[in-house]
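Exercise 7.
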Amino acid sequence: MKVKESYVFLEDIRFHAFHGVMEQERMTGGDFIVSLKVKFPFAPSLQSDNVQDTLNYAQLHEIINKEMQTPSNLLEHLAGRIGESIFKQIPQAEEVWMKITKCCPPMGGDMVGAGIEVRLNNDKTAD
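Solution. The predicted structure, written as tokens, is:
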């Protein structure tokens, strides 16, 4: 059997954080949801059953949690910081797909959320 692509993901992680352009958002904070998928060559773990051969979910969560604690005006900037941290701490990570949703944003409309979605490539693993 040959693995064509492999990913590790975290889905709908909830945070209360202080991101936003408006002063009120940065003072009282708001709720955010982060989903993330990391392309990672974990083929050896299919046979070894060893966590050393894959990407540990807890490590990913720790990286995201740390970056969520540092306020940003823009979700785009936050996503960039998360991506940089993942590629720095997990150099084998080839690509990161990320979705960040700001729940009930203060824009006068009734909605579940607004946000960004981005796909980032690790320059060090690019062909």
